[in-house]
Amino acid sequence: MSGAHSPPSAPDDVPRTVGQRSRRAGVGRARDWLIGLTLLIGLVIAVDHRVGLQALLAPWRSLSPGLLTVAFALTAVSYLMRGLRVYDYFGPLVAGRFTAVLRLSMLHNTANNLLPMRLGEVTFPWLMRRYFGHSFLASGASLLWIRLMDLHCLALAVILVLWLRLSGWWWPALGLLWMALVPLGLALRRRGWAALLPAGRLRHGLRFLLAAAPRDTRQLSRLYLWTLLSWGSKLLAFALILGHFVDAALWQRLAGVLGAELSSVLPFHGVAGAGSYEFTGMAAMVPLGVAVDAALAGSVNLHLFLLGSTLVLGASALLLPVGRARLGAEHNVSAEMAAQGGSAPRRPQGG
Description:
This protein is an all-alpha fold. It is built from 13 helices and no strands.
């Protein structure tokens, strides 16, 4: 009977569990920063030992202002295309506020390029909630679909590189086949099959993600067009810049740019990508015949161009007006409830 007077253990366990999670998160963040700083220091040592700082920066003196202007303009076009993609994706939710969408997209891209461990991705749902009152979780689900389009487009770019290196009719055929897979993604938009799963978090989570997918073939085609234009302009700009620092064929330079850009999928990242960006760029070029020192110097200078463009365009984004935010509390509540087990939210229909 004395046990009846004992306080329940659950209230004591909750703070302990929360505290343990906080400590684990703190350890994880410290580990990530340690890895990032280690990569940065390793990069500095490698450049000093293999190339030398003076030799690394010397080619910038002979860089044509015209080439630099064209490359920067193409990079700016890439930012613009990303903004158009977000504007098209969310439709009526952001209608009439393109400058706010462009500001959001540019700041999101800036944060991705400057923050380590992909922490910049958090800025997208955060700014969507701040500027448009859209649910944090629903914005994150939409970002997932955007990233899937990015990966599909990068795979198409890899096929292009292989075609440039190994000419043959099968590479364009493979590219067309790969493109044909895009409309098949709309089959995921039909959520009926998700109802066959047992009730629970998995089914609710899938319904939540599927609700954020592009609405129809027309919208998906437009979104993918913006994705192609965005990546096409960026890859061309970076290949032009890399060509000034590395004596290599176009397909080798494109491979290096693709390798560097794919550093974002690594489980580890340097501060502002330093180290990881160069490592993957070199890993793509060296096996294709580019000398180690040239690949290292080219990757570092390409990264410097990326960071410089990021700082200029990111600062420019702050000049864009946000406009008046919309009230979106009802949408936020329904989306958050859906993530916890309610009905899936319906994203505003773009068009």
